[in-house]
Amino acid sequence: MIKNILITGCSSGIGYECAHYLHNKGYIVYATARDPKDVTRLQNEGLNALELDVCNHEAITKAITWASSAHEGKLYAVFNNAGFGQPGALEDVPSQALREQFETNVIGLHEMTRQVIPLMRAQGYGRIIQHSSILGIIALRNRGAYNASKYAIEGLCDTLRLELQGSNIFVSGLNTGPVRSSFRKNATKKFFQYIDMENSVHKTSYENEVLEREDAKDDGDMFTKGADVVIERVVHILESRYPKPHYYITSATYFLGYLKRLLPAGVLDKILIKI
Fold first, then answer.
1. Which residues fall within 8 angstroms of residue 33, CB to CB, at 6 or more apart?
2. What is each CA distance from 77 to 18, 24, 133, 158, in whole angstroms?
3. How many CB atoms lie within 10 A of CB 221?
4. Most buried of 31, 107, 232, 261, CB within 10 angstroms?
5. How many domains does the chain have?
6. Which positions ≥6 away from 119 have C-beta within 8 Å?
7. What pLDDT does 182 receive?
8. Do 33 and 52 contact (CB within 8 A), yes or no?
9. Known catalytic residue at 146
10. Which tens digits make up the pLDDT trace of 28-43?
């Protein structure tokens, strides 16, 4: 069996590191990124790379065809990794910002999944990896748009597993905690694009928590891990006969996931409001 994999969001961080690791391990990797400059860089680094904005459904069709055409129309795996975070208290997040958050994190992921399933059904196997988050398990203040998008991914994954029973197509969700990437830097840009901080009742919270956290250096944070912790789970999904439905990644995810199952909502809220 040829193990080819299509990965979205490979410009940096987890997608970038995963694409290179799997390529070096012998997988046939098809890496995508939204920015043409990133695509050129990936190609110069020896990867098969294509421009892909997951909000463009026709481009998704093109990417699936590109990744499968050299392999008799077959595609072993898809890693839906593309996404971003829109910070801000929900009362400050404009509807347009929420639409953009869902268009990339949820609708793009769904469209890629929806288009690849018929191909995988026809070939009789497949792996679909959905990048969720610790914030698909618990919610944090000033992350409502992102929380909601990741909760939606959890619902999609749980439903797909039921609908794909017996198909030999496995859907696995990655509940990733803090991992070193450009995520925080990109989130800060989205914050200033959409949030009117000066006229918000949450201004102090933004100054003392959101922006400080987004600008924090990951290297000094004992809870923030390298992309290798995600790559390890991706490899397990690709190589295990029966991959797990959920993969908790980083100690923060295990700890908060445990508290979510153990504590009443009111008690858990008192802990989460301090994070």
1. 9, 10, 11, 15, 39, 42, 49, 51, 52
2. 13, 17, 20, 18
3. 12
4. 31
5. 1
6. 64, 68, 73, 74, 75, 126
7. 76
8. yes
9. yes
10. 999 999 999 999 999 9
Q: What angle do CA 79, 82, 87 make, to 5 degrees?
A: 140
CB count within 10 Å of CB 176 equals 28
Q: Give every CB contact of residue 37 below 8 A, 6+ residues apart in sequence.
A: none
Question: Residue 55 contacts by C-beta under 8 Å, 6 or more apart in sequence?
Answer: 103, 104, 107, 108
Query: Is 47 a residue whose pLDDT tops 90?
Result: yes
Residues contacting 90, CB < 8 A, separation 6+: 144, 145
Summarize pLDDT for 116-146 with one digit per residue, the tens: 999 999 999 999 999 999 999 999 999 999 9
Q: Percent of the chain at pLDDT above 90? A: 87
Tokens of residue 122, six digits: 């026809």
pLDDT in tens, 55-103: 999 999 999 999 999 999 999 999 999 999 999 999 999 999 999 999 9
CATH no. for residue 90? 3.40.50.720
| Annotated catalytic residue within 21, 30, 146, 247 | 146
* Domain limits for position 111: 4-272
Alpha-carbon gap, residue 90 to 159, rounded angstroms: 27
Which helix (H) or strand (E) is 249 found in, with range?
Answer: strand 246-249
pLDDT tops 60 at residue 23: yes
Angle at 98 between CA 181 and CA 84, to 5 degrees: 10
Instruction: List the structure tokens of 260.
Output: 């979510």
Instruction: Read off the pLDDT band of 243 (50, 70, 90).
Output: very high
**Which residues face 31 on adjacent strands?**
7, 49
Are 166 and 62 contacting, i.e. CB atoms less than 8 angstroms apart?
A: no
